[in-house]
Amino acid sequence: MRLVAQVKAATATITAAIATPRPMMDGSPAHSISEAVLLSDRIVVMSARPGRVMRVIDVDVERPRTDEARKDERFLEIEAEIRDLIFSQEHA
After folding, report:
1. Hey, how many other C-beta atoms are within 10 angstroms of the C-beta on 3?
2. Distance between CA atoms of 42 and 12, rounded to whole angstroms?
3. Which DSSP category does 67 fall into?
4. Which stretches of the chain are assigned E, i.e. beta strand?
5. 52, 46 contact by CB (below 8 A)
6. Distance CA 43, CA 82 (A)
């Protein structure tokens, strides 16, 4: 019985930690546009060479964000905006 209580307490702690919004301050690059929108509160889109800030985009999609958020209209708009910025550089 004691083990069950310990597991429940640990699970509750982990769940609370995952659900608590935390600012990302480390500037880690994302592996995809979708991942960046899902995980970030603010995205900095940089140009190719020379690397300059093109735009800072606030991600105003409700938290907590799950895979369901990827279907949200605002989520899709932000993805498209970033994609347009990145791919417009290739033809400039």
Report:
1. 7
2. 28
3. G
4. 42-46, 53-58
5. yes
6. 9
Report yes or no: 6 and 37 within 8 Å, Cβ to Cβ: no
What 3-state DSSP class applies to 45? strand
d(CA 21, CA 42): 13
Distance CA 74, CA 79 (A): 9
pLDDT tens across 37-92, in order? 999 999 999 888 888 899 999 999 999 999 899 999 999 999 999 999 988 876 55
Backbone angles phi, psi at 54, to 5 degrees: -85, -45
| Pairwise CA distance, residues 31 & 53, whole Å | 18
Distance (Å, rounded) from C-alpha 16 to C-alpha 64? 11
